[in-house]
Design brief:
single chain; alpha/beta; 7-stranded mixed β-sheet; binds adenosine-5'-triphosphate; binds magnesium ion
C-alpha cells in the first residue's frame, strides 16, 4: 500500500519537490524511529489525522519515512513557537504512526495523513541524520496486558461511552455517524484515546493523557475531562437559545432608536456635533492644503454640516474629510543632504558593499544638487537577506527622512495602489497615500518591496501602470488617488524599489530605474557581518550582554558552513539568535560566569548539521556531473545524472526540464556519442536533474550534461571537486553564459575546488570577490575536450583514438 502511495506522491506534486533519494543516508537502526516534532497536535493511537509539515528537517523525515516504508514517531514540542528543536524541547513520549498518504503542496508545505499506532518512549537520540532519530521502547497496549476486561474497567468503559455519545449530540456540527462509531467500539483503550483526541483541552493535558499508560487511570482522567466538557456544552446550548431571543430584541431597539433620531431631527434637536465639526474645520484650515484642495474640502465640510452625521453618508463623508485633513500637505523644506554624514551612516549600518554604497552616495549627491530634478529611482536587486530593505532604512536615516515600506508581492488590483472611488462601500485610499499619512511628511523614503512580484494586470486594472505613474517624475507631482479625488504632490518623496530578480519586472518600470545588484556574500563577508552586527543585535534582542556569552569565530564559521546555505544572512542571524537564547536559558537557570559556545556545542543546540558536503557522495559514481545554476535566490549547484538503459538509442529526460535545457541535452548526447565513438543503437540514455528549488532551464548546463554522459559511457567518474557551467555547440565549442558571480559563490559554498567556465566569460571574473578568487581554481574552456581533461582526466586509449 505504501508503495502505491509513494508513486501517488509524485503525481500529485504540483511543485518540483525534493525527490527522496535512495542511499544518500546512513541506515537507521531497527529499534529506532524517525521523529517528527509537532507544534500543536498530539497524535493518539488508533486515530487517523492530517498532519502538515513545513520545516525542511520534517519534510526530509517524512520523505525518508515514505521512501523506506518506515513508521514515524510523532512527538509534541514543548514550545510551539520554536523552529529548531533539540531533544530537550520535546516530550519524550509520543505515538508511532504510519504515513498513509503524502501530498506535496505548493509553497513548501507538505501534507500527510497519518494513522496513529503505538505509544512509545524515546530512550536515546541518535545523531547523524538531517532529522531527529531516536531509539525507542514501545509501550504495550493495556488490553493486551490485561487479557480481558475486568469489571472495574468495564464499568468505566460503559460510562465513558455514554458520556461520549451525549457530548457528540450536544456538539453543533458533529457528524451523526460518529455516535454510531463510538457505540460500536469494543476496546476501552481505543475509546479513551479517541475521546482524548477529540477533547478540546490544552495540549499539555492531551500529552498527559498520552503519558498515562495505566488503563483504569486513563479512563478516569478522560471521563473527568469529558464530564466537564459535557457540562459546559449543556450550558452553552442554553445560552445559545437565550441569545437568539435577545438578538431579536436588539434589532427592535435599533429600529426604534433610528426612528427617534429622525423625530429629533424634525424637531431641530440633533445631537451636539457642532464642536466636533468645528475641530475638523480647524484641522482643514491648518493642514496647508493647496488652494483648490482647500476649496474642495471646505465645500464638502459644508455639505456635511447640512447633512448631519446621523446618516450613513454623513459618516462616510466625515471619514473622507478626516483623511484629507490628516495628510501631510505642507511643503516643509527637505532636510539638507550631508554626503559625508550619509557615508558615515551607511558604513555604520552595513558592512562591505562598497560599490553599492558608492552608487547610493552618487545618487544622493545628484539629488542634493538638484532636489526637484528627475533622478532615476534606485532599485536594489538581489537574493533574500542581503540587506535590500535595511539599506533603504539606512538611506532614510542618512538623509534625515522618514521611512515607509509598501509590500507589492501579490498586489493584483490597481486599487491597492491608487485606492477605490468613494462611491465604493468601505473605500479607502491606496497604499501610497496611506504610507504618506503614516509618515506624516512628504520628505519620506518610500520603499516598494518586491516589485518583481507585482501581479499582472487583469480584471481590476493593471497595478503596474498605476505604479508607473507614481514613480514617474513627469506625472507624480499631481498624483490622483481615486479615493481622495484630488491631486497630491509626490515629487518630493524619495522612491526606492527592491526585487529578487530582474526578469519579471515589467519593462517600462525597469526603464525608469537605476538597477543596483546585490549578489550575496562570501563566507568571510558573512563572518564579518556576524561579528560586527548580527551577534550584537541578537544579544540586545535577547536581553544579554557581551560579557555573558561568547561566540568565538570558529563557532560562527560552523554556523555559516553547516547550518545555513544562503546568499544573504537572514538565516544566519536567526541561528545566532537560537544559540544565544540557549545560553540565556542557562543563565536564567542560575549559571554564572561567561558562557563560551564552542563549535562542538552546536550539535546539542541546533541539532545535527544541516548541510553536509553532498557533492563528494553524489559524484562518486560515473555518470554524475556537478553543474552550476543561477537562481533568483543566488547561485546553486545542480547534479546532472546520466544512466544507460536497454532501448533503441533514445534520450530520456526527467526532472521537469525546460525546452531550452532539453535541446541542450540532445546536443550533449549527440556530441558525446561522436566523441566516445559509441553509436548506442541498443541503449537509451536517461538524463535526470534531481529537483530542488532551482528552475531548470537555459542552455548553461550543456557542458555538465556532456561530461555526465561521457563519464557514463567511459565508466570513469567526474572529479567531485569540480563544478562547471557553459553552453555547448554541436561542434564542441563552449559558449558563454550569465551569472558568473552568483554561480562562483555557490560553488564556494558547496566546497568545490575547481570551477570550469567558458573562455569567453573570463572577463566576468572581475566581479567575483577576491576571497572566492583566492580559494577557487578557475579553468577556462574553449572546447569540450578542455572540460574532459580537467574533470575526468586522461582518456582511456579507445576514447582517445575516437577523439
Ligand atoms: N552588509 C550587511 N551588514 C550588516 N547587516 C546586514 C548586511 N546585509 C544584511 N544585513 C542584515 O541582514 C538582515 C536581512 O536584511 P534585509 O531584511 O535587508 O534583506 P532583504 O535583502 O531586504 O531580503 P528580502 O529580499 O528577503 O526582503 C537585516 O537584519 C540586515 O540588517
Ligand atoms: Mg526585504
Amino acid at each position: 500500500m505504501t508503495k502505491l502511495l509513494a508513486q501517488d506522491q509524485d503525481k500529485t506534486s504540483g511543485a518540483p519537490a525534493e525527490k527522496p533519494r535512495a542511499g544518500a543516508l546512513k541506515p537507521i537502526p531497527e529499534d529506532a524511529l524517525i521523529l517528527i516534532p509537532m507544534r500543536n497536535t498530539v497524535l493518539f493511537p488508533g486515530v487517523i489525522t492530517p498532519v502538515t509539515v513545513g520545516r525542511p528537517s520534517s519534510i526530509a523525515a517524512a520523505q525518508e519515512a515514505v521512501r523506506s516504508e518506515r513508521k514515524v514517531g510523532f512527538v509534541l514540542q514543548r514550545d510551539a513557537q520554536k523552529n529548531e528543536v533539540a531533544p530537550d524541547d520535546l516530550y519524550w513520549v509520543g505515538t508511532a504512526g504510519q504515513v498513509v498518504r503524502y501530498i506535496t503542496g505548493g509553497e513548501g508545505a507538505h501534507h500527510m495523513v497519518v494513522q496513529g499506532q503505538n505509544r512509545f518512549r524515546a530512550i536515546e537520540f541518535l545523531p547523524g541524520w538531517p532529522f531527529l532519530v531516536a531509539r525507542v521502547q514501545y509501550i504495550e497496549k493495556p488490553e493486551e496486558q490485561e487479557g480481558k476486561l475486568t469489571p472495574d474497567i468495564e464499568a468505566r468503559f460503559l460510562q465513558l461511552k455514554a458520556q461520549a455519545v451525549e457530548a457528540i449530540q450536544l456538539l453543533p456540527n458533529a457528524p451523526e455517524e460518529l455516535a454510531v462509531v463510538v457505540q460500536g467500539l469494543t476496546s476501552p483503550g481505543l475509546l479513551a484515546d479517541m475521546v482524548a483526541n477529540l477533547l478540546d483541552v490544552k495540549l499539555e493535558e492531551k500529552q498527559r493523557l498520552l503519558e498515562t499508560f495505566d488503563l483504569p487511570t486513563r479512563l478516569d482522567r478522560v471521563l473527568a475531562m469529558l464530564s466537564e466538557r459535557v457540562g459546559v456544552l449543556r450550558i452553552s446550548k442554553e445560552i445559545g437559545e437565550k441569545t437568539k431571543k435577545e438578538f431579536d430584541e436588539r434589532q427592535r431597539e435599533h429600529v426604534l432608536r433610528e426612528q427617534m433620531r429622525q423625530i429629533q431631527k424634525e424637531l431641530g434637536e440633533g445631537e451636539d456635533t457642532g464642536a466636533e465639526l468645528a475641530e475638523l474645520k480647524k484641522q482643514i484650515e491648518d493642514a496647508g492644503m493647496p488652494e483648490d484642495v482647500h476649496k474642495h474640502a471646505t465645500k464638502e465640510l459644508k455639505r456635511l454640516q447640512r447633512m448631519g452625521e446621523g446618516s450613513a453618508e454623513g459618516s462616510m463623508l466625515r471619514t473622507y474629510l478626516e483623511w484629507l485633513a490628516e495628510l501631510p500637505w505642507k511643503d516643509q523644506p527637505a532636510p539638507e543632504i550631508d554626503i559625508a554624514k550619509a557615508r558615515q551612516i551607511l558604513d555604520e549600518d552595513h558592512y562591505g558593499l562598497d560599490k553599492i554604497k558608492r552608487r547610493i552616495l552618487e545618487h544622493l549627491a545628484v539629488r542634493k544638487l538638484n532636489p526637484t530634478g528627475k533622478s532615476p529611482i534606485l532599485c536594489f536587486v538581489g537574493p533574500p537577506g542581503v540587506g535590500k530593505t535595511s539599506l533603504g532604512q539606512s538611506i532614510a536615516r542618512a538623509t534625515g527622512r522618514k521611512f515607509q515600506r509598501i509590500a507589492l508581492g501579490g498586489v493584483h488590483d490597481e486599487a491597492e495602489i491608487r485606492g477605490h472611488r468613494r462611491t465604493y462601500i468601505g473605500a479607502l485610499p491606496g497604499n501610497v497615500i496611506q504610507a504618506l499619512k503614516r509618515a506624516g511628511s512628504k520628505n519620506t523614503v518610500l520603499m516598494f518591496d518586491e516589485i518583481d512580484k507585482l501581479g499582472q494586470g487583469g480584471f481590476h486594472g493593471d497595478p503596474s501602470s498605476a505604479l508607473l505613474e507614481v514613480l514617474d517624475p513627469e506625472q507624480n507631482s499631481h498624483f490622483r488617488d481615486n479615493y481622495l479625488g484630488v491631486d497630491f504632490d509626490l515629487s518630493r518623496v524619495m522612491f526606492i524599489t527592491t526585487a529578487n530578480m530582474l526578469d519579471t519586472i515589467p519593462g517600462p518600470l525597469r526603464d525608469r530605474m537605476e538597477i543596483i545588484q546585490l549578489p550575496g556574500y562570501t563566507e568571510e563577508e558573512k563572518l564579518e557581518i556576524a561579528k560586527r552586527y548580527l551577534v550584537k543585535r541578537q544579544l540586545e534582542a535577547n536581553g544579554m550582554k557581551s560579557e555573558q556569552v561568547e561566540l568565538p569565530e570558529e563557532t560562527l564559521r560552523k554556523i555559516i558552513g553547516d547550518y545555513t546555505r544562503e546568499a544573504g544572512v537572514r538565516n544566519l542571524e536567526r541561528e545566532i539568535g537560537s544559540v544565544l537564547r540557549h545560553a540565556a536559558m542557562r543563565i536564567a537557570e542560575g549559571f554564572s560566569g561567561r558562557i563560551e559556545i564552542k563549535p562542538e556545542d552546536l550539535h546539542g543546540i541546533l541539532g545535527a548539521r544541516r548541510f553536509e558536503n553532498e557533492v563528494a557522495q553524489r559524484t562518486s559514481v560515473p555518470g554524475v556531473a556537478t553543474g552550476l545554476a543561477w537562481t533568483p535566490v543566488g547561485g546553486d549547484i545542480l547534479f546532472i545524472e546520466a544512466s544507460k538503459v536497454p532501448g533503441s538509442g533514445k534520450l530520456i529526460l526527467t526532472g521537469q526540464l525546460g525546452e531550452v535545457m532539453k535541446e541542450s541535452a540532445q546536443a550533449a548526447l549527440t556530441l558525446s556519442r561522436s566523441f566516445v565513438g559509441e553509436t548506442l543503437e541498443k541503449t537509451d540514455v536517461h538524463i535526470h536533474v534531481p529537483a530542488g528549488a532551482t528552475p531548470k532551464d537555459g542552455p548553461s548546463a550543456g557542458v555538465a550534461m556532456f561530461l555526465a554522459i561521457v563519464s557514463l559511457l567511459l565508466d570513469v567518474p567526474v572529479r567531485s571537486d569540480v563544478a562547471m557551467t557553459g553552453e555547448i555547440s554541436l561542434r564542441g565549442l563552449v559558449l558563454p553564459i550569465g551569472g558568473v558571480k552568483e554561480k562562483t559563490l555557490a560553488a564556494l559554498r558547496a566546497g568545490i575546488k575547481t570551477v570550469m567556465l567558458p573562455k569567453r566569460n573570463e572577463k566576468d571574473l572581475e566581479d567575483v570577490p577576491a576571497e572566492a578568487k583566492a580559494k577557487l581554481e578557475f579553468v577556462f574552456l574553449e572546447r569540450v575536450e578542455d572540460a574532459i581533461r580537467t574533470a575526468i582526466g586522461e582518456l582511456p586509449a579507445h576514447a582517445r583514438k575516437a577523439a
